[in-house]
Design brief:
By secondary structure, this protein is an alpha/beta fold. The protein is built from 18 helices and 14 strands. The strands form 3 sheets. The chain has a 6-stranded parallel sheet with strand order 3-2-1-4-5-6, with helices on both faces. Helix 11 runs antiparallel to helix 12 and helix 12 packs across helix 13. It starts with a strand and ends in a 5-residue tail after the last strand. Nicotinamide-adenine-dinucleotide binds next to helix 5. Pathway: Nucleotide-sugar biosynthesis; UDP-alpha-D-glucuronate biosynthesis; UDP-alpha-D-glucuronate from UDP-alpha-D-glucose: step 1/1. Pfam families: UDPG_MGDP_dh, UDPG_MGDP_dh_C, UDPG_MGDP_dh_N. GO terms for molecular function: NAD binding; UDP-glucose 6-dehydrogenase activity. Its EC number is 1.1.1.22.
Length: 469
């Protein structure tokens, strides 16, 4: 029986290992983490992350061949294959601050592996890391190896939150990069054999280490670039009378372009797009490629522009001031079907409105008040550094209230901002909402999920992204 250990029980480590355990009953899978709270939650009825379908998979495998533990060293020592899926945030200080990846967590995991290993190991980079990280990890492991053989593989993860289980069950591809030596190839084959339990072999791509590492950064950059492209066009649509939904549809019907990832929005969020592009920009700069760096930086600039454009639209539509006005925010998570708020555009939009002294009432079906207050008081890039994952600070933002119902959030409000595309928002009784709002009643649909014509018939003044007013 092969034993797999995964260091890091987060959004990637938890679901990925649950699927491996589900599909490979002969493999023992242990997910370890230094966070006692996280492991306790994984072992409870209330899992630490919300992901459709995850509960069922965990219930089926937990205690059978899937285990969650804080006994990091023991399970690392016993494992044949070790996945490392720790956070790789943006550095907040020192060389490369605000851009480069902070590999502190990765390095400490690697040193611990070297310390406790007593037999040969395959060490798999699951975290998204800068290209060439495997070289650094190899150095740490081999210089501390005590004669043990370590093979490093890069196996980046492409799942998206909210659809993680489906993405893992039916991935477009699994990517495995390894050293082009007999030992390296054997390690690649060993990991391939795990995935081949459920992924068709033609979908398992093998490459050299650097191609695998760079492909992950490139894939995220390409995806984010599509959103910034359509968002840039959305500004032009508003200026010209074109409709961004029609333009995106017409453009996406070209089979060379394709229809996915062309939804104009208030901006992309999530823990990775910005972090990974900044990381790519930094690597380009370090490799003497300033033009390439500038090209990718622009994807982030347009995303920031889109968020501030949205705030400006809200304030300017409401007679140039939201001071003292109640604004209902529907949706705080960075996308639907997740409770994750990392880098959500809602943070920047709320901070922008608070800057203009609005009183904000927020409703999100999956995000807690603690989380929202923490997000609104935290500095840029601090969120992914565990030292900051503390209980809510005493200086909670007073102009913000968090409620557990969309009707409560909109009661007496001057405006509604839709910032996450939760399905339930489409089904709201907007006549009821209109009746209880101040007039004129504004709706700013940052996700283009509402029926603007219907809302206008009710009496709302409606702003949708990339559409005529
Ligand atoms: P996360 O913050 O949810 O989880 C990381 C976990 O690692 C935390 O629970 C932390 O306590 C733990 N950890 C940190 N250092 C440790 C150590 N030395 N020993 C044991 N545990 C340790 O992060 P995540 O969202 O799962 O992302 C992990 C990596 O995967 C990142 O590099 C990210 O870029 C990448 N990724 C994320 C997604 C996603 O959708 N979230 C998708 C693909 C790739
Ligand atoms: C993204 C990628 O899709 C995954 O392949 C990758 O593994 C992951 O990042 C990662 O490396 O972390 P995720 O961030 O979970 O996944 O979610 P996405 O569906 O990509 O959405 C990201 C953001 O873009 C969200 O805020 C979403 O609302 C926004 N978006 C997405 C748009 O504004 N328009 C679109 O057309 C699509």
């Amino acid at each position: 029986m092969v034993k797999i250990c995964c260091i890091g029980a987060g959004y990637v480590g938890g679901p990925t290992m649950a699927i491996i355990a589900l599909k490979c009953p002969a493999v023992e899978v242990v997910v370890v983490d230094i966070s006692v709270a996280r492991i306790t939650a994984w072992n409870s009825e209330q899992l630490p992350i919300y992901e459709p379908g995850l509960d069922d998979v965990v219930k089926e495998c937990r205690g059978r061949n899937l285990f969650f533990s804080t006994d990091v060293e023991r399970h690392v020592a016993e494992a044949d294959i070790i996945f490392v899926s720790v956070n790789t945030p943006t550095k907040t200080r020192g060389l490369g601050a605000g851009k480069a990846a902070d590999l502190t967590y990765w390095e400490s995991a690697a040193r611990m592996i070297a310390d406790v290993a007593k037999s040969d190991k395959i060490v798999v980079e699951k975290s998204t890391v800068p290209v060439k990280t495997a070289e650094a990890i190899e150095k740490i492991l081999t210089h501390n190896s005590k004669g043990i053989n370590f093979q490093i593989l890069s196996n980046p993860e492409f799942l998206a939150e909210g659809t993680a289980i489906q993405d893992l069950l039916k991935p477009d591809r699994v990517l495995i990069g390894g050293r082009e030596t007999p030992e390296g190839r054997a390690a690649v084959e060993a990991l391939k054999a795990v995935y081949a339990q459920w992924v068709p072999v033609e979908r398992i791509i093998t490459t050299n280490l650097w191609s695998a590492e760079l492909s992950k950064l490139a894939a995220n950059a390409f995806l984010a670039q599509r959103i910034s492209s359509v968002n840039a066009i959305s500004a032009l649509c508003e200026a010209t009378g074109a409709d961004v939904t029609e333009v995106a549809y017409a453009v996406g019907r070209d089979s060379r372009i394709g229809p996915k990832f062309l939804n104009a929005s208030v901006g992309f969020g999530g823990s990775c797009f910005q972090k990974d592009i900044l990381n790519l920009v930094y690597i380009c700069e370090c490799n003497g490629l300033p033009e390439v760096a500038t090209y990718w930086k622009q994807v982030i600039k347009i995303n920031d522009y889109q968020k501030s454009r949205f705030v400006n639209r809200v304030v300017s539509s409401m007679f140039n001031t939201v001071s003292g006005k109640k604004v209902a925010v529907l949706g705080f998570a960075f996308k639907k079907d997740t409770g994750d708020t990392r880098e959500t555009p809602a943070i920047d939009v709320c901070k922008g409105l608070l800057g203009d002294k609005a009183a904000i009432s927020i409703y999100d079906p999956q995000v807690t008040e603690d989380q929202i207050q923490r997000d609104l008081t935290m500095n840029k890039f601090d969120w992914d550094h565990p030292i900051h994952l503390q209980p809510m600070s005493p200086t909670a933002v007073k102009q913000v209230s968090v409620v557990w119902d969309a009707y409560e959030a909109t009661r007496g409000a001057h405006a509604v901002c839709v910032l996450t595309e939760w399905d339930e928002f489409r089904a709201l009784d907007f006549q009821r909402i209109y009746n209880q709002m101040q007039k004129p009643a504004f709706i700013f649909d940052g996700r283009n999920v509402l029926d603007a014509d219907l809302l206008r018939r009710i009496g709302f003044i409606v702003y949708s992204i990339g559409k005529a007013l």
